[in-house]
Design brief:
heterodimer; A: 63% helix; B: alpha+beta; Ribosomal Protein L30, Chain: A; 3-stranded antiparallel β-sheet
């Protein structure tokens, strides 16, 4: 992985990132905190997609029961992500659960970033500028490294 | 926590309780399918990892389901009683996958 390494460790997953990459990554949870359920925002719509497609009442009931827990879980993931990124320049070992939290934040970040770029189908990637494409690629590269380390 | 003020034991015979809102033989008996939909952002390898991690599927089964999602646009990844299906759906959403429920 460019800009550092992620590898399996007896206690979980070891991560070390160079300063530039860590500084780049640590900004993403702040953007995610601004995604509010029900907001007129493509990112909010992507993170809170309907569960019951043909039953609005059942869907509202599901979100009523599960939405808050989902929000709390995502917030906890972002907190773990921030701590890991802060320690990653010196090098740190994450527990497997922390590594999964970091992975979920990377996924969430890619979903939000792509939603705001209007990526609805795979062909939409072809019109991306190099800067946006490199952001999505960098997040994906770390995501893949974490998956490999967790397997 | 129970809020019914009646004592647990009563000397009076209990009349049968009829709840007009209970529609017997509906959700409790039925199987709900959990569907994962294709999206252009989530990585193929990540979807495989999620299905293996959440449901304990073999790599082969997780790969086949992910391939079906990618190719057909959707795949039924698990099923069960409504409560279980709703929780599975929650776990998939927690991992950023778009999952829906259907009968």
């Amino acid at each position: 992985m460019s800009g550092g390494y992620v590898r399996p460790h007896p206690d979980g997953v070891e991560i070390r990132l160079d300063e530039e990459l860590a500084a780049f990554l640590v900004q993403f949870p702040f953007g995610l905190d601004g995604v509010r359920r029900g907001a007129d925002d493509p990112a909010a719509r992507r993170l809170n997609v309907p569960v019951y497609l043909d039953d609005r009442d059942a869907d509202q009931e599901w979100w009523g029961f599960m939405g808050e827990e989902l929000d709390q879980g995502r917030a906890a993931d972002r907190s773990a992500f921030g701590e890991v990124m802060a320690a990653s320049v010196a090098g740190t070992v994450m527990s497997a659960e922390e590594a999964r939290a970091v992975l979920r934040v990377l996924v969430e970040s890619r979903l939000v970033y792509a939603a705001r770029l209007g990526i609805d189908v795979e062909e939409d990637y072809e019109r991306l500028g190099p800067s946006d494409a490199s952001v999505l690629d960098a997040l994906a590269e770390l995501q893949m490294a974490l998956i490999s380390a967790l397997e | 926590m129970a809020t019914d003020p009646r004592p647990l034991a009563s000397t009076q015979p209990l009349a049968p309780v009829i709840d007009p809102d209970v529609d017997e033989g509906t959700d409790l008996d039925q199987t709900w399918k959990v569907v994962v939909w294709n999206d252009p952002v989530n990585l193929f390898a990540y979807v495989i990892w999620v299905l293996r991690t959440l449901f304990g599927y073999s790599e082969d089964k997780a790969y086949r389901l992910t391939h079906q999602v990618h190719h057909d646009g959707r795949a039924i990844v698990t099923d069960g009683p409504r409560e279980q299906a709703e929780m599975d759906c929650f776990r998939l959403h927690r991992h950023g996958l778009w999952a829906t429920l259907e009968q």
